[in-house]
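User: Please predict the structure of the protein below. I'd like the answer in structure-token form so I can feed it into my own downstream comparison script.

Assistant: Understood. Taking the following sequence of 280 residues as input:
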Amino acid sequence: MRSAFTQLKSPLMKRRSFQKTFFLFAFIAGLSCNKKDSEVPYSLSYGSSVIYLKNQPGDYIVYPLQSKPGTYSAFPEGIELDDNTGAINVTDSETGLRYRIMHTSVNGDTTSTIVLLSGIQFVDKFYNLSQNDSIAFPIYNGSSANPLPLNGSSFDENNNANSGGCSVTTTNGQINLTQTVRNGIFGAVPQNDVRKDFEIEYRLNDESGKALNKIKVRMYWYNTMADVPADLWQILNDRQSQGVFLGMNNPALGNASTARSAMATALAKPRPPCVIIIGQ
């Protein structure tokens, strides 16, 4: 017969044996779950495809919903992106444009997403004054189909553009090019290849909460289309081929379009927009 001690010990040992077996299975199951989690593809997201500047002190920074080791990059130029975390400094970025954000993991896997930083843009375009093509219209959130929120919005906030001769309508952001030329920004008698830059500060009554935003515009003067130099055509060619990312497929450039892919012209800078005024 077993001793009383052995009889008391046996149930205890069985219970401990069961506990060890249970924890072993739980540990194995945990490893399996972790393995499955690690195999789930990383989905890069900022919570919304449209990101609005915020009316707040300091820089407004937006982070990916989920962080993951690796490196982050962006296309085209103009967005302030942290290479290590994927954080976007919206305050210091060029707004009104679409950007592709890409994440490359430590093992080389890549994933990407496209975000639009809300704001206005002016398309790269030839404006022929002799054909009464004399108004540059702002484009809101990357598409001419989007209505610009005018009620409560303001343009040329600090009068920097108008005081410099760029005739901006403060209620809708439109630029009167004929009046701008009359204001003498290209000289009393406009000369070929004169280029002037203007910064337009504005506030939009949208989800930005009327945060102070800004855009730089570059204006050119040429007497005729034949006077447009090769370097400017090259800039327009490069930008047109990456228009799918900017949301600015622009037929106004005509023969400026090329068949090159957007990634082949990654060095093309989308800003400042080129407002090219042709006298005749």
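That's the full token string. The two ends are 118 Å apart (CA to CA).
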